[in-house]
């Protein structure tokens, strides 16, 4: 009866380790059957394996790792990025409560206006481009923060799980920038706006695209989106431009993410994000030229 792999073979003429030719051994790799010495053998479910077979098995496991519909890695916690975004919004809200209105004036979305205290020009047109992103994390009222964070918590985790963390974060930030961009284009130049609504509406648009892609029932998200659009255009003091800009950009980015062909997936997905960002940049440059002209 043959001896099982991993057990010393008695008798003369022992083989030599394939990695250490000067060492005799009666142990062979359970996968490739090459002789291995005690320094090279790695315990396996059955017998021992050589370092190369162990590395090859790990690579095969990595290659077989499941992917999301957009090609992202399946994460153990599909809410991590959403939790971080929630945390940032909450932290900034408490900072606003502690710092007062000046923080809102310095970081809110503003096209071009005169600062009432210093009598100097401020706003995106004056070079304060950071406002387009910082404004998306600013909230003054608790109800405003509550509505936006409820939307983020409701829409974010399913999208994060479906797209993967990096793609989901790109979708969120681009939607926020697009919302600020449409506000910059269409709102009054001295109108100050703030809030995560543009980014959240981007998640609405992305959810609609994903639901259609997966052929789920489209009616629930359509009804929810319709209700939010009615609120957008009927309630006062709502920057509807940010909502629409985020919605359109979120849908466009999501369409490129979930419909990219597998053979050129990364290229198409990156290209989609770059094209949307280029539209944002061109629109902002044109608007700045109008305000400063």
Automatic annotation (TrEMBL):
Transmembrane segments in this chain: where? 80-100, 136-156, 168-186, 192-211, 218-236, 242-260, 267-289
State whether keyword Transmembrane applies. Answer: yes
Q: How does it sit in the membrane?
A: Multi-pass membrane protein
Gene Ontology MF: a single term = peptidase activity
Q: Where is the Peptidase S54 rhomboid domain?
A: 127-258
Localization annotation: Membrane
What InterPro entries does the entry give?
Peptidase_S54_rhomboid_dom (IPR022764), Rhomboid-like_sf (IPR035952), Rhomboid_protease_S54 (IPR050925)
Write down a Pfam family by its short name: Rhomboid
The record's similarity note reads: Belongs to the peptidase S54 family.
| Entry protein name | Rhomboid family intramembrane serine protease
Write down the species: Streptomyces johnsoniae
